[in-house]
Amino acid sequence: MKIGLIGKGAIAQHVMGAVQARGHMVHAVLVRPGSISQNPNLFVGSVPELIAEADLVIECAGHQALAAYGPQVLGQGTGMITVSVGALADQTIADEMESAASVGQAKLHLASGAIGALDCLSAAATGKLDKVIYVGRKPPLGWKGSAAEGRLDLEGLTQVETHFTGTAREAALAYPKNANVAAAVALAGIGFDETQVKLIADPSIAQNVHEVEAEGEFGQFHFRISGNSLPDNPRSSALAAMSVVAKLEQLSKPIVM
Ligand SMILES: NC(=O)C1=CN([C@@H]2O[C@H](COP(=O)(O)OP(=O)(O)OC[C@H]3O[C@@H](n4cnc5c(N)ncnc54)[C@H](OP(=O)(O)O)[C@@H]3O)[C@@H](O)[C@H]2O)C=CC1
Ligand SMILES: O=C([O-])CC(=O)C(=O)O
Hints:
single chain, 257 residues, alpha/beta, Rossmann fold, Dihydrodipicolinate Reductase, domain 2, 2 domains, six-stranded parallel sheet, 8 helices, 32% helix, globular, binds NADPH dihydro-nicotinamide-adenine-dinucleotide phosphate, binds oxaloacetate ion, EC 1.4.1.21, NAD, L-aspartate dehydrogenase, NADP
C-alpha cells in the first residue's frame, strides 16, 4: 500500500519503520509547516499533498491533528487509521468524522492502541454488559505533560497516587495524550459515559500497566498488560504503535482476525 503518515513522533517513527519493512511505501508525511525543510522530499504541509498518491492515511499525531485533518482525508475518499481514539470523546469531532466518512465513502479505522481484549469486550457488548472498569497505571514520568502535573509532584512522587477518577469521556478529554486506551475500552464496550476510569501514578513500576475488568451476561473477565514504553516517549507504549501496524496488516490481507 501507499501510505500517507501524519506525525513524526515516537509512534510515527515506529510505524514508518515497521510498515516499510513489510513492503508498504510511506510516500508523504504531514508535519507542521516549520518542519518541512527537515526532509523536503518526504515532508508535506497539507492534506491534498498527503493524499495525492495515498491508498491509506495513518494518523499518529494526537487529537488535535485528527480533528484538523481527519474530515478532509475521509471526505476526499481516503481511508484512515488513527491511534488518537480519545478524540472521539468530543461528540462534535466524532460527528464530523462520521459525516466526512459518509461523504467520502471512506472508513476511519481505530487502532486498538496500548490495550488488548477489545475483541472480548465488543463481543460481550452484544449481550448485556453491566460494568466496565479501566485502570491505567504509569510511572510518574509517564504522566508528564498531562493533567496529572497539576495534581501531583511527579518528579518527587514517592507513593502510589490516583490522580483521576471519572468516566471514560472525562478521562479522554482531560488526558488527550494518556487516556486513548480509556476511549478504546469505552468504544468497544458500554460507551464513554458508562465506562469507569481510574488513572494512577506509581513510582514502583517501570512499565505502563493497563487493566480492564468487565461483568455481564457473558460472565466476567480481567485483562492486564504491562507494556514497555517507546524509547522516544515514556508516555506512549510500544504496543500502541504495533497496533497501528497490525491494523494495516488486517486491511491489506484477504483473511483477517
Ligand atoms: N491509542 C493508544 O493507546 C495511544 C494513543 N496515543 C496517541 O498518539 C499520539 C502520538 O503519540 P506519540 O507519537 O507518542 O507522541 P509524540 O509527542 O512523540 O509525537 C507527536 C507527533 O505529532 C506531531 N503533531 C502534533 N500535532 C500536529 C499537527 N497538528 N500537525 C502535524 N503534526 C502534528 C508532533 O509534531 P511536533 O513535534 O512538530 O509537535 C509530533 O511529531 C498521542 O498524542 C496520543 O493521543 C499515544 C499512546 C497510546
Ligand atoms: O501508551 C499508553 O500506554 C497509553 C496512552 O498513552 C493512552 O492511552 O493514550
